[in-house]
Amino acid sequence: MRRRKNHRTAPERKQQYTLEAEWSAADLTLLEELRRAEDLLPEDAPRALLSVRLSILTDDTTSPVRQELDLRLLARERGYRVVGIASDLNVSATKVPPWKRKQLGDWLNNRAPEFDVLLFWKLDRFVRRISDLSTMIDWCLKYQKNLVSKHDSIDLTTTIGKIIITLIGGMAEIEAANTSTRVASLWNYAKTQTDWLVGKPAYGYETFEDENGKVRLRIDRTAYRILHWCRRAALRGVSARRMTTILRRSRLVGDGLTASTLLRRLRNPALMGYRVEEDRSSGARRSKLVLGPDGKPVRVAEPVFTEDEFHELQAALDRRSKDQPGRTPGGSTRFLGVLVCVDCGTNLTVHKTTTKGKPYAYLRCAECPGGGRGAPNPEAVYQRLTDDVLTVLGDEPVQTREYVKGAEAKKQLKRLESSISYYMRELEPGGRFQKTRFTREQAETTLDKLISDLDQIDPALTEDRWVKVDNGKTFRQRWEEGGVQAMVEDLLRVGIKCEVIRTKIPRMRAPKIHMKLSIPKDVRERLLVKEDDFADRL
């Protein structure tokens, strides 16, 4: 029997394209030739951004190189200067819209003034949902950008072009929907089969091919030892957190294992050898048994635990968790990501317990032993943080980023330059303004005024750009209107942290709390509110 060979991971495949080995000598020669051609373009040539995308990159893939070279050839044909390449590989156009892709999204959200036209190889390389296409058309019209495809008749400067791009986008969405239907059908069929057709097996199992070439599941021996050790520990009353610590020290698991992950593994009914699926009816992450046509669970492998062993394990886990309060909607910790432990650097989170019927809440961290010295009364910590933030940043003005087009200033600049050239030419000997002293003096006066007007125009105003606009409010007013959630969002966006120092007090259980606010040096630049053109899009 032989194991199934795993494909390379996505980061490994992506890294391959960045190496020069993906470019042949002929490709590099053509690339250099195209760059030399760009150097001959006029200064005001339209600026092009190339969008390169691929869902799956394999060893035999040359598509990213081909896409870039084809788009550079198209740019040369149309007289565009290439100013950037947004390369998003191993990215699904169905799942990830253009504005959420790592590279293209940065250009669309932050670097719009730097290009005039967006080039892509084919429409399905760009989008696969008509709603995403409609969003991009609206965005391009708002910022006066054009969309151009190498293999589709797309041009937003014409009405016909807009109609064509909508029709093609509809066809791409239909194709994507058909693919989604086929995949869903495969999953539904696979759930009823004893063979392992698709998907990642539950912890405790691994896939292999039998002598007939069919993929099946078998028990992972290392995971088997770990799970049975955890079962025996749970029966003795050992907590999941303690088990996690011991397992990490033993090096049988990775350092990223958490108590929550371990509990999900121990509570998975797949450990009885049955097929399971996600249980979407509960708020917690759980799995439930898949029943076959006969109403019985579908067995896909030998059990790690017998049914009696599994149910004994669940009862032991329930005894440890029965007094735990339910989750608070929206999360218990208000300033999650802002409040951090000064000792271990991890986030402080609210933990709730009930002792003798009385609920208690306190802040703990993830890496310090026992969660560090528990800080009681989280509300008092929140209030001190709020007061400190308002003292430091409350009076800062709220500024928004707005997009300003330079087209009007550019037209005015060209008009003045044309008029100055005309008057200078006609004031030369033999020109029409040299016929009389009156016409010459009038022309010289007009020329002086035109030159003065030209000097008043800042060349930067002729380019598309972002500008800061004061909306008349302070951040104190913004946070009073938006509440704590608005403050948290701004603090996370800016990168502000609050280090909490918990100092032991003799003969006192509760520690003394010190708080240190860490604010980036460029906080005023980071506080700039940027409008999200895609905030309301799914």
Q: Could you characterize the architecture of this molecule?
A:
- It comes from Streptomyces hainanensis.
- Residues 202-323 form the Recombinase domain.
- InterPro entries: DNA_bind_recomb_sf, DNA_bind_recombinase_dom, Resolv_N, Resolvase-like_N_sf, SSR_resolvase.
- This is Recombinase family protein.
- Keywords: DNA recombination, DNA-binding.
- This protein is of the alpha/beta class.
- The protein has 4 domains: 10-181, Rossmann fold; 205-321, Hect, E3 ligase catalytic domain fold, CATH 3.90.1750.20; 339-396 and 468-530, no CATH class; 406-463.
- The chain is 42% helix and 18% strand.
- It contains 16 helices and 17 strands.
- The strands form 6 sheets. A 4-stranded parallel β-sheet has the order 2-1-3-4, with helices on both faces.
- α2 (25-39) runs parallel beside α3 (63-78) and α13 (407-426) runs antiparallel to α14 (437-456).
- The chain is flat.
- The model is unreliable at 1-21 (pLDDT under 50).
Structural class: alpha/beta
CATH superfamily of the largest domain: Resolvase, N-terminal catalytic domain
Rg from Cα: 32 Å
Please tell me the CATH architecture of the largest domain by its name: 3-Layer(aba) Sandwich
CATH top-level class of the largest domain: Alpha Beta
Describe the sheet with the most strands: 4 strands, parallel
Keywords: DNA recombination, DNA-binding
Organism: Streptomyces hainanensis
Domain Recombinase: 202-323
Protein name: Recombinase family protein
